[in-house]
Fold this protein.
Amino acid sequence: MQNKQLKWTFYVVVLLLLLAGSILFALTVGEIRFSLNELVDIFSRKEGIEYTILSRIRLPRIMLGVAVGGALSLAGVLLQGIYRNPLVEPYTLGISGGASLMVAISIVFGVNMSLGGYVLPAAGFLGSVITIFIVYFLSMGRYSININKMLLIGVMVSFVASSAMMFLMSTTTNENLQSIVFWVMGSLAETDVVLINTVFYVAMAGLTVSYLFANSLNAMRLGVSGAGHLGINTGLTIRILFIVASLMTGVSVAVAGVIGFVGLVIPHLTRMVVGSDFRILLITSFLGGGIFVVLCDVLARLIIAPNELPIGVITGMIGGLVFIGVLARK
Amino acid sequence: MLKIKDLISGYPGSFMLDRINVAISKGAFAGIIGPNGSGKTTLFKTITGDLKLKSGKILLDEKDTSLMSSRERAKKMAIVTQTIDAADVPVDDYVLMGRLPYKKPFQLLDKKEDIEIAKKYMQLTGVDKYKHKLMNRLSGGEQQMAAIARALAQEPELLLLDEPTSHLDISHQVQILNLLQQLNEELGLTILMIIHDLNLAGEYCNNLVMLNKGRVHISGSPDEVLNYKDIEEVYKTVVITQKNPLSGKPAIFLVSGKTLGNV
């Protein structure tokens, strides 16, 4: 058991080092490249155009990547844990569908133009919250929760939302269509400090609350009634963690759009390495998700530079291919 | 130890237990028997708290279980279900989960004494031989043993088991029941199990409850319960009852239709 703690510490230290490495790497690459020495130099002088680029554009973008990656991946772990279904991911429950639909509505009806940069994130967040409410109240009985029903309702809400969105897309102007598509594919090119901080704090709060339920999640590996026999309040666990995962997803989607696959692939890869104990799985998935999204964003910026690819394309392709590769090798 | 008073529970419109009264005294090795559909599993689920009771009371050490927290209940009563649903958890972690009811709500690290207790019961049940294997890679008998080790790690006063020997060959059946008997006699653990096999029920239990159509048909010592009249009435099957020549416990023989025709 001493052994186990040593191993866990090792995993966390390695991932923290990798995260620090990815952040430094992401700072150096881009339209203007910097060496590590230059970085140190610029950050100690704290002035000049390079400092502005790094501190106002690159660093916020990287921090957003860490927060969104961590939040989505953690949300995936939590949902897979409470549903005991390895194929569930944050978007399965219709949260991204709801968010996208609201964003599409506000683009199509031009609410956008009059109110400035917070409109789309606000619309996205509103959309996710509405979805969360619908799924939650339709599936929570007064005394019990039917987990499968909850999952099905989420999937159905997701379908309805995406159909409604396609309806909007097929009837609107080309210009609006492009904005919608661009938003849906996801991007970390947000520079507003308030929005970025919001995602970051929500992700941190989510991680903290998840740890309060680590024992319950571990017990729920034995099934809902198995966990109940060990004195775990499974209803409370499912409710709270569902809300935590949904809020993290909603905030991420609202600010960065739909960045797919992080919440499915990273939890799986992490579980393969560290095992199924949630006490280590929560933090390692969070860090792994952050690293993955930061590195994918670097690729999104580099591949067709000076233009950018939507990050959702990169996460989907790389995540999917790596995942298939790993599964095939097993 | 466990008293069930005028219990009514079940699935309205389809199956209901009807005013069940059962008393299991401390130190008993009790078995619930009865044909398929007689209400054994419904009764089990009501005792474990998975099924809400409609009326009546279940008392554990004179305390109403509906007033106990699930945590408090998990310290007094450990449950081994028929199918063990344990996914990719290593056996030692699984057994250690038996200590969860004793953990402080937000205690993340395992205490040394909890680890020692888990180790003790892994050795006692023999699962320490494969403690690093994942639960879902074990055979049915090994899973059943691990589940018993986990239940023992809860250090309960009452152990509830739902058909611990179904799907197992005779060597594993006897191995598990011998272990239960040893726990019952040496640790004074009270045991209540659902069991299909009447011969095993007669051989191991010292107290039997026979259910039929949601009611208690007869209860008492194996000698009282396992008589051919009651068995034939409840199971609608012709049996011959005799004594096991070595243990002196009741033994039941089935007879084929062809043989019966020749009599």
